[in-house]
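**Protein record**
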Amino acid sequence: MVVIRLARGGSKKHPFYSLVAADSRNRRDGRFIERVGFYNPVGKEGEENLRISLERVQYWADNGAQLSPAVTRLVKVYATKVAA
């Protein structure tokens, strides 16, 4: 099953997450199919801390991919930010 989840990057105490479509059997930071966005929780003010390709997330969801709870929350935040 394909799942859209966060893959952690960055360094100690400075996380950086990629939103990836991956096979659920692969490790969290392992092999993935496609990178659909990023999230930087400790980014500076004025920088872009969240970017998601909503059309690619929708494509994967339409083809049976499950969104993790964290990704679901981030997609809702990003969709309201883009709509405003």
About this structure: The CA atoms of residues 37 and 81 lie 15 Å apart. Residues 2-83 form a domain with the S16 Ribosomal Protein; Chain: A; fold (CATH 3.30.1320.10). The radius of gyration is 13 Å. DSSP finds two helices and five strands in the chain.
